[in-house]
Amino acid sequence: xxxLILGIGNLLLSDEGVGVHVVRxxxxxxxxxxxxxxxxxxxxLDVLPDIAQADRILLVDAMEGGGAPGSVYRVPFxxxxxxxxLASLHGLDLSRVLYMAGNDxxxxxxxxxxxxxxxxxxxxxxxxxxxxxxxxxxxxxxELSRCENGSVPCSGAGExxxxxxxxxxxxxxxxxxx
Length: 178
Known about the structure:
The chain has 178 residues and is of the alpha/beta class. Helix content is 29%, strand content 20%.
């Protein structure tokens, strides 16, 4: 199974760039075989080949879920709201990019989101989001190890949210329900 950790976000809009900051940190680590870390930023079309080859995508981005700034969420992609318009802060919406990838198989996608404190012009993360980076990195590494050793299914609907909450990671499985 090929797992893609995909960091998205706009580095020019402070906390909106959190996904890029996270994958830059993860790229410095030794990760399991079959795991690729890719910084997409706002250029989804540039990573179409990576998306097309992935069996599983762990997407990292800013996410407004109503929690305190720096809260970390783990949400299946199919439970997230998708914009009704063609474009977003990232250019194109990921659901449209997946369609454009032309992949006959549908990769499993989990979104690891961080509640932003501010989305405004600036290159630095807010203190709340900066302090959440270790928690989101740990949540991603835990997800990889759970799926790698087969201790839980790698799919779906937030079945292991209790273990995430015990690790001081907030999990909202119904965020963005359709």
